[in-house]
Amino acid sequence: MSLLRIRKPKTRKGKQVLLARESQLVENARVMLLLEGRKCGGDVKLYMKDLQQLRKPLVKVLSRNNDISPFEDPSSLEFLVQKNDCALFAFGSTSKKRPDNVVLGRIFENEILDMVELGIKQYKALSYFKIEKIGTCVKPCLVFNGPKWSQTDELRRLRNLLSDTFQKDKIEAIRLQGVEHVISFTCTEDMTILMRSYKILLKKSGQRTPRIELMEIGPSADFSIRRSKIASEDFYKMSRKQPTELKVAKKKNISHDELGNTHGRIHLGKQNLDKIQTRRVKGLKKTSEQKHDNRQKKKELLKAAAKEMVTNKE
């Protein structure tokens, strides 16, 4: 008797849940799980609360404290993320050895793909800025400043992880008036990550393109990189693999210009013009004007021929 039994769903809702967890051609928007460790307070509490506000509605929050050490034993963390059907997670904790600690990570195939531990040096919450805020469903524009983001594998993965953390639904087109929120990440020389959040204000400039001003609305944070767990190249390449059904097949002899027009080239074989049927073809029919001109020309030719015959008899 086999010990590996396949549990079939007993209800319709259970079947829908299992089907939603299977691999799909087009993935849904990624949901983030927020959870806290044994001790969590101060700036970490404020950061988790603001992160929940920025991620709404694609976020789930666990209210209980969890005795989890992500870098020592990630199995319990993977179980909670899988149980809540999430792809991203943020784990906040504080201790004497690592005060104000935040772990950001993502899951692939029920295993942790990437995970970075950040320490909060300085933090200003959304409530610190007494100004008008951004709506809930507004998608932010992410900006990464500095050349260090592309110098090491750790920073490249961290940049990709931050993009997944603050990204919501995928968009196909952008409207200028719809870009209202921008989140900036700057990597300094001492490897400090500066996170700033601004509201975009469109001012009159006397031209068609408006003048842009930035107003800081929070949150504002300074992070230090403590520990990181990066997936291997093979595992990371597997997570980025796209299904063949979504790949666009390259078509030969087709090009696109700068204006978006499509140009194609057609190759034809050698044609035998002697065998082409030209009689009673609609495309070769003469118009009424052409027929009238031909009749006039025939009359003129007959008149000219009659005159020549008269002159010859004389």
Describe the overall structure.
The structure is a single chain. With 314 residues, this protein is an alpha+beta fold. It has a domain at 28-231: Brix domain (Rossmann fold), CATH 3.40.50.10480. The chain is 25% helix and 27% strand. The protein starts with 11 loop residues before the first helix and ends with a helix. Pfam families: Brix. It is found in: Nucleus, Nucleolus. Keywords: Nucleus.
Key structural traits:
nucleus, 314 residues, Ribosome production factor 2 homolog, ten-stranded mixed sheet, elongated, Brix, Rpf2, alpha+beta
Topology (SSEs and partners):
Layout: H1 12-21, E1 32-36, H2 43-55, E2 59-65, H3 75-83, E3 88-93, E4 101-108, E5 111-124, E6 141-145, H4 153-166, E7 181-187, E8 192-203, E9 211-216, E10 220-229, H5 233-239, E11 254-256, E12 262-264, H6 288-313
Parallel strand pairs: 1-2, 1-3, 6-7
Antiparallel strand pairs: 3-4, 4-5, 5-10, 7-8, 8-9, 8-10, 11-12
The proportion of residues forming helix, as a percent range, comes to: 25-40%
Q: Mean pLDDT, rounded to whole units?
A: 86
Number of helices: 6
Top-tier CATH class of one domain: Alpha Beta
- Going by CATH, what is the homologous superfamily of one domain? Brix domain
* CATH architecture descriptor text of one domain: 3-Layer(aba) Sandwich
Series of secondary-structure elements, N-terminal to C-terminal: HEHEHEEEEHEEEEHEEH
Spans of at least 5 consecutive residues with low confidence: none
End-to-end distance, in Å? 126 Å
Q: Characterize the main sheet.
A: 10 strands, mixed
